[in-house]
Amino acid sequence: MLKLCKFSLSMLFINLYIIYALTGNYIPNGTLIFGLASGLFMILDSLSSGDIRFFTDIRPEMYTLIGFMIWTFVTVPLALNPSASLTGAFNFLQKLVFVLVIYYICRRDGSLKYVTILFAFIAVSAALIMIFMQGIGSKRMSLSDNITINQTGNLMVLGTFCVLYLYKGEKWYSFSALVGAISLFLFIIALTGSRKSLLAVIILIGLFIIISPKKQFIITAKSFFSLIVLSILIYVLFVKVTPMLSDTSLYARLFDERVSTHANESNEGRILFYQYAWNDFISNPIVGLGIEGYLIKHGSYTHSAYMEVLACTGILGTILYFTSYVRTFLKLWKKTWNKTVEFFELRNNRLVFCFFIVFLYIGLGIGHLYDNLSMLELGMFIAAGCELTAPQEVHVTQEGDVVADVG
Known about the structure:
By secondary structure, this protein is mainly α. It contains 17 helices and two strands. Helix 13 (257-283) crosses helix 15 (305-336) and helix 15 runs antiparallel to helix 16 (343-362). The two termini are 14 Å apart.
């Protein structure tokens, strides 16, 4: 049942990011069908395995998100637009299923391996689709008309985390593949023109280098072939790729004075959105405008995970929602400095913490509340904050002895 749960969730996101980009159409009702199927198989797996602790042992982080979901429904009658808020509440309920399923899978597996393999594949596939099917131009590009520029950049940031998480440095070519994948993601970010995504990747890699265990550097530098391949990639980057990058919108937004001025005006517009959100909160401090209320009132989202929740759900909703963030941060921080675990576990604990910092930073420009990818990442972080040990399946032998198999 666990395999069917993984398959359903995989198909849900492949449908959202890959199938639509390739064909221009989703599998009819794919999100609903695969979402319900993943939730159903999660429940059946928990019951059939005889080990329901991963289903019943829901952490406080999950309880506060469930409480937030209930709050969005309770406040619908008081919302600025009850009909839109009811739709928004149901949409959040759907995303909460993603969070719960990802949390369950990661805890059942005892690692984040499933999530990282899935989204490494999706990110690489999306990058290749953009290059070979859309071509390279000077205008800002996104994966599809239903995936925004910022969401495309966020997918590339997630892809960077995934390949770093999966990298073990055991073979000389694994380092080459790592550098190649990250270079591909950075190139796609250049095509999107997303400065925030570029900075997110820099922060992720920079933080990871700073706090990574020393042994990581020994592993990375061990292979002479890796250094040769890296040198070749650097040469190709500066000699071949740089002229191509000069035609991208990211280059223009960073170095073209006219475009940079327009980008600064865009930043000023976002600050104005934040001010509107704060004023809306002051006017409705208890229940807010209701989910989707800010969009209804101002014709745009706040472009901030924090101000969106504050303006739309009030003080109680904000406390419920961000309690999960605070508790997850504290748990990941504690695991980051726990040196009693083996090397790769410590390394990945620190990498996950670095990515959570990036997640918080990206929230300044993307409303996590409405974004499927962000909610999936939140479920992954909540699971990572727990003790990710492989479950023990207990059975009784014919002789009557109780045996625990680590699965």
